[in-house]
Amino acid sequence: MTRNATKLQDRGYPPRAAFSPGFVPALRKTLGHEGGYVNHPADPGGETRWGITKRTYPWLDIRALTRPEAERVYFRDFWQRGGCDRIASSSTTPIAAEFFDQAVNGGRGAAAKTLQRALNFLRGSGRSRPLAALRVDGGFGTKSLRRLRAERRSRLDITLLAFKGFRFTRFTEIIRRRPASLPFAAGWTRRALER
Question: How far apart are CA 128 and CA 131, in angstroms?
């Protein structure tokens, strides 16, 4: 067992056998954007491998982090703690996968705010009376889940597209505020808008 694997076990990270079914396709999509070791000077996360940063996980040896170890971190800290199973059961796995990818790329709070903004944007579309606006607070709780469930199956593709659009908008705002992030623009665009 590697030192990282021992640290993960000691901190209660679940084994790969515990992964839920919706997590596996979401993980595959996210890992298509994450990969080898990098230490880009413009990345505030510092050392990164598989999308796991030294800034967030100072106790891990990032350079030595294996893919199975990164998967365990993703499952507990982003899928489970982000409520992605609840999102998947409320809507579709694609929305949960997009939420998960945003959580990995920008944090769980940013993922929740982005999906809340998308749901607010669509709250009057196709309805005789608009629904009440959600509070964009970064906590995807009961009210946000109820709103997601209220979207008819036929509208979930529109909800996913709106979510992707708001992800792209978030990335443009990051670059506007922090121009040093410009080297990441092409990758972020691809990540936000891919189908």
Answer: 9
Write down the H helix ranges in 33-184: 67-73, 84-90, 93-106, 108-121, 142-150, 156-177
* CA distance to 110, 126, 184, per residue, from 171 (Å): 11, 28, 9
Tens of pLDDT, residue by residue over 132-189, are 899 999 999 999 988 888 876 668 889 999 999 999 999 999 999 999 999 999 999 9
Which class for 178: exposed (0-12), middle (13-18), buried (19 or more C-beta within 10 A)? exposed
* Single-letter amino acid code for the residue at 50: W
The C-alpha atoms of residue 182 and residue 43 are separated, in whole angstroms, by 10
* Residue 53, beta-bridge partner list: 48
Question: Which of 111, 98, 100, 107 minimizes the C-alpha distance to 157?
Answer: 98
Cα–Cα distance for residue pair 13/93, rounded to 1 Å: 23
pTM as predicted:
0.91
